[in-house]
Design goal:
By secondary structure, this protein is α+β, with helices and mostly antiparallel strands. It is 34% helix and 14% strand.
Length: 152
């Protein structure tokens, strides 16, 4: 017998699943019932993201600007951190370089292009100071505990 989830706002029951437009949706992780927190299935992606009143050309232009900004921010960070992987000195492809948080408990957000493009330089740089610049391969090895000289 499954335990019923209770809404943290009104105390009402939260169903485990709901079927909308012929699709079954899992609601097990919700903290609020459908009356207290809207279920966004009735809105399009454009309405949720705030692009609904924008023309197609303006949307494309804005997305291109966000992509350019995120690449520029990451390139600036990579240059500050030495331009290559701390362990193997890889530096060929910007997208293959990642930031590994030295203390995961102090991590506020990951430094991916999609996360940094809408944040200020100050906030991004403060987060980057908690990290080492590593290539994707070394990052996976660090996470798996295979890099011998790395101290967590």
């Amino acid at each position: 017998m499954s335990k019923k989830k209770i809404c943290i706002t009104c105390g009402g029951n939260i169903p485990s699943y709901i079927k909308r437009d012929g699709v079954l949706h899992n609601l097990k992780n919700r903290k609020r019932c459908l009356e207290c927190s809207t279920f966004r299935l009735d809105k399009s992606v454009d309405e949720i993201s705030g692009y609904s009143n924008w023309s197609v050309s303006k949307r494309k232009s804005h997305i291109a600007w966000l992509n350019k900004r995120s690449t520029e921010l990451k390139q600036r960070l990579v240059d500050i951190f030495g331009g290559c992987c701390k362990y193997c000195k890889y530096s060929r492809l910007l997208d293959a370089l990642e930031f590994h948080h030295l203390d995961r408990h102090k991590k506020c957000f990951s430094l991916t292009k999609s996360n940094i493009r809408s944040r200020s330089w100050t906030v991004v740089f403060e987060e980057a100071q908690k990290c080492d610049l590593v290539c994707s391969r070394c990052h996976r090895e660090i996470e798996a505990g295979l890099v011998p000289n790395f101290q967590q």
